[in-house]
Specification:
The structure holds two protein chains of two kinds. In chain A, strands 2, 4, 5, 6, 9, 10 and 11 form a seven-stranded mixed β-sheet that branches. In chain A, strands 1-3-8-7 form a four-stranded antiparallel β-sheet, with no helix packed on it. Chain A is globular and about 40 Å long. By secondary structure, chain A is mostly beta strands. Chain B is mostly beta strands. Chain B is 0% helix and 53% strand. In chain B, strands 2, 5, 6, 10, 11 and 12 form a six-stranded mixed β-sheet that branches. Chain B is globular and about 40 Å long. The chains are: A mainly beta, B mainly beta.
Chain lengths: 117, 111
């Protein structure tokens, strides 16, 4: 079954304790992306990756890191989490045509609800 | 830069009534438009997309949307809603490398 898998689904942690949210897709997609969803703000892009070893900032990258060492995996790293990073996070992937993702629908994971105390 | 505006944060409607969820976008270049649906405790699923061609596009679950270039709108419609359509709906605009979402509209279908 084609899917995007995120882990963990839920996490409660404390300020400053490094954490990683994993994301894996089994569709051989080139493009992967992380979003955060906050009430009234919709989804905002944190980072994206056009392919292996190619990553770029989205609209709200501060406080986050990513890596893309393999095509299927795109982990989101919070080196020193703070309460304002409490949110619902989604990973997504899609095919990429001629360097762009314009006409490709994105496939989303089920989300990771992160609470930073 | 591109942006997406969903004018209604919540739309309450009775079962079997028609519904329209509004979406306007701003972009200086041609874009591709999508509607996604998010059911409670789930990720987003693609409802429909406009890439080119006919301005009326049909999606899953009986939804359709009309692309209006002059009004820069991409409103979502369904002639008769069901309780199971209760969800949050997101309009999105994509260009080469980025997908920009609206703030979402929560559709609440009441019996």
């Amino acid at each position: 079954e084609a899917q995007v898998t995120q882990n963990p689904r839920y996490l409660i942690t404390v300020t400053g304790k490094k954490l990683t949210v994993t994301c894996s897709q089994n569709m051989n997609h080139e493009y992967m992306s992380w979003y955060r969803q906050d009430p009234g703000l919709g989804l905002r892009q944190i980072y994206y990756s056009m392919n292996v070893e190619v990553t770029d900032k989205g609209d709200v990258p501060e406080g986050y890191k990513v890596s893309r060492k393999e095509k299927r995996n795109f982990p989101l790293i919070l080196e020193s989490p703070s309460p304002n990073q409490t949110s619902l996070y989604f990973c997504a992937s899609s095919l990429s045509r001629t360097g762009g993702i314009s006409n490709q629908p994105q496939h989303f994971g089920d989300g990771t609800r992160l609470s930073i105390l | 830069a591109q942006s997406v505006t969903q004018l209604d944060s919540q739309v309450p409607v009775f079962e079997e009534a028609p519904v329209e969820l509004r979406c306007n976008y701003s972009s200086s270049v041609s874009v591709y438009l999508f509607w996604y649906v998010q059911y409670p405790n789930q990720g987003l699923q693609l409802l429909l997309k406009y890439l080119s061609g006919s301005t009326l596009v049909k999606g899953i679950n009986g939804f359709e949307a009309e692309f209006n270039k002059s009004q820069t709108s991409f409103h979502l419609r369904k002639p008769s809603v069901h309780i199971s359509d209760t969800a949050e709906y997101f309009c999105a605009v994509t260009r080469r490398r980025a997908l920009t979402f609206g703030s979402g509209t929560r559709l609440q279908v009441q019996p």
